[in-house]
Amino acid sequence: MERIKPRTLSGFMELLPAQQVLFDTIYRSLEESFSLYGFTPLDTPMMEAAEILLAKGGGETEKQIYTLNKGDTDLALRYELTTSLAKYVAKNYSKLSFPFRRYEIGKVYRGERAQRGRFREFYQADIDIIGDGGLDVFNEAEIPSVIYECFTALGLERFVININNRKALSGFFEIIGLGEISTEVMRMVDKLDKVGEDKLREMLMDDLSVTQEQASEIMEFVSFPGDPFELLEKYKGKNELFDKGYDELAAVKKHVIGFGVPETHFKINLALARGLDYYTGTVYETIMTDYPEVGSVCGGGRYDNLAEYFIDRQLPGVGVAIGLTRLFYILQEQSLLNNSLLTSASDVLIIPMTDDMSPAVSLAVSMREQGLRVQIYGENKKFAAKLTYANKLGVPYVVLLGEDEIGSGQITVKDMVEGSQVTASAGLLITGLCDKIKKLRSGVPIKT
Amino acid sequence: MERIKPRTLSGFMELLPAQQVLFDTIYRSLEESFSLYGFTPLDTPMMEAAEILLAKGGGETEKQIYTLNKGDTDLALRYELTTSLAKYVAKNYSKLSFPFRRYEIGKVYRGERAQRGRFREFYQADIDIIGDGGLDVFNEAEIPSVIYECFTALGLERFVININNRKALSGFFEIIGLGEISTEVMRMVDKLDKVGEDKLREMLMDDLSVTQEQASEIMEFVSFPGDPFELLEKYKGKNELFDKGYDELAAVKKHVIGFGVPETHFKINLALARGLDYYTGTVYETIMTDYPEVGSVCGGGRYDNLAEYFIDRQLPGVGVAIGLTRLFYILQEQSLLNNSLLTSASDVLIIPMTDDMSPAVSLAVSMREQGLRVQIYGENKKFAAKLTYANKLGVPYVVLLGEDEIGSGQITVKDMVEGSQVTASAGLLITGLCDKIKKLRSGVPIKT
Q1: Biggest alpha carbon distance in chain B?
Q2: What confidence tens digit (pLDDT) does each residue in A249-262 have?
Q3: What are phi and psi of B47, to 5 degrees?
Q4: In this predicted model, what pLDDT tens digit does every residue of A35-87 receive, in sequence order?
Q5: Are the beta carbons of B362 and A51 separated by less than 8 Å?
Q6: How would DSSP label each residue in A139-160?
Q7: Hey, of B1, B2, B5, which one would you mutate to test binding to chain A, going by the most A CBs within 10 A of its CB?
Q8: Contact in structure between B406 and B116 (CB atoms under 8 Å)
Q9: What phi and psi, each to the nearest 5 degrees, are found at residue A435?
Q10: What is the ipTM of this complex?
Q11: Fewer CB within 10 Å: C terminus or N terminus of chain A?
Q12: Is A362 in the B-facing interface, judged by CB distances under 8 Å?
């Protein structure tokens, strides 16, 4: 028979069992964090009519969309979760209550050129709060605390949530006479981290004909070393948009502290522009302190109209997204995954040492009733092969059930890490195992 | 602006928030049931190279596969999870330990003609146990207890797992001289439930030239009213394949009882053939007792070679699949979903009644620390509008936080179901809320 080489497409993450368990642990932790803030789970289709996904037009992104055709409908795979949310909210508008808070963790598809660390199929974890007609800035203030909760629950300690306000930024550019080209200036300023201060100043003057004075003012603004509000104060009262942004930023800062985000973990960063046309208020980016080069691991912001392509209602919102697959990839690459977490699918492997499997079956039933995850080794192999299997499986405990044990109503439990072994009554040992397993499962997925 | 009608493709299930929560509850319950039996979670790509998915050739199914092209690769969306498992096991053969137990709950795609109750995108929940070179029949005996655990954990009470053995069935046909056309006979016998006994007898004789005597023997075999083993006994010692099947069936029955599956919930059903070429040992189908017309909600069986298209190793296995989306659809249609289960995304909605949101923020922080899912209503609306929102959200408890409460260090909790209201210290009420919420969350997703 001619065989086909089993392969997985490049750019598609497919994990070995232990890694998958770690991935799932992160996935569930995010779900729990989102839930604490009252976000409801959604699971929208992976595929939509092409006209839905292309509604807002995507420029570069559009080229990456996977399209397909079946029957007479042009179909496409979603490349982000926001368009699906927009469609969902517009479609179910009358059935939802606003502000509508949802999270969705799902796969999206981008037909990018495959390269290391870039994925064609990847999970995004999105939260959004959608208002009907309006949405208080208070919601923008709560988002950083959700991000903080997410990452600390995962065990990540060293990260900073950068926060800025697009109104303050645009207002500032208007004040210094660059209102007309504020988009272009912002796009350039966003490169500060990459190019450095000198190069940025040069680019602003050469490419955008910004005067030396304006350039200096921009440079001071985006790299002010002290309390940013001290600097912002200087511009107050000169521009309505700026003043609104200032007030929003002050409100956000106040509540972010109120929500318990430590000052070490967020920063009002006036250089942050993030995206260009979409965001209209608070914007966020989250940087892993020790790995600034990987860029933002959770970003987003406030936008004014979620679903204008689908519905004649203004639906402002605020949201952030975590690139979950990419985050997992980085954690793996940087050896930040907590490999001491229990990743075996079973807590206990029962190895029957008699031909009759019935005692093993009864024991498995009692153990599962106590919530233990139990596998019975049912193959007719030599004892050494059975132990080799247990070792390869990474199972923490093995129960040996021979004639002696069965005769005396006892079981033998072998601790596969310590190598120790104890024989005693099943009831007693099962209780002990439950406690030990609880401890083994209680870690966080990221090394602290 | 020209607007696009927001729509979801037909054949794609997209749920409203409360339904989504019920769906997710079922999803997680299945995960937990699978985990108790030591199945490890996998998450394989939704898309594969077309040659991988088409490796085994699909006949009718192949026509339903969604294909797409990007660059120079022919791609396809998976239409089941088994081919992905076969690829995974072949690809990672040396890294896995056998027997390899995995579950995968994931979306699959079939470009069927859309009709009520048929889906183009749907979840399958699969478990499989894969052996290397061999796999003891004991594994086949454990599967019904997994199915029993899954459905009872969901709250379903009235269902029956039908069990048969393909070796016994094939052996029987050989014994009565129909070995040459056993596949055709089986295919016909599988229709017994649909066409009835008389029609089946007629079809066997007319279409397959089965003699009257053979037809009578078949009819007795597939509709024997007493203990099937009494009937099977008659044929023992006449055919090697039959005897093997008999022994397997006896072993399966013994252990199914040992695993605690009540005799009311499984049945050795000699009429069950299930599929035709793939299965080679025990086969299963699960019927909801009160809804036999919906057919099997969980089926599968033993097969001899999982991945012959990909690897030169014999990898026998046994597995079953639950059509999760279809099951959910049926539960919805038959009003079997437990709507008294808590489906709101928040346990508590805090309604601040002062301009300063800080006390609400502090309270939310304390409540979330206790594991309560809390949303703060942050919009500047009239009190009536805030309560309307709480009602529409379906949140069980509302906390009112006005000047009086803040001044006295108390909170007012309104029970949205009972309509009652109590004012007391926050600490006291939070503890009470945690208890109440625990109870509200503790139900099963299917009405009992």
Answers
A1: 93
A2: 999 999 999 999 99
A3: -125, 145
A4: 999 999 999 999 999 999 988 776 677 788 999 877 768 899 999 999 999 99
A5: no
A6: HHHHHHHHHHHHHHHHT--SEE
A7: B5
A8: no
A9: -65, -45
A10: 0.96
A11: N
A12: yes
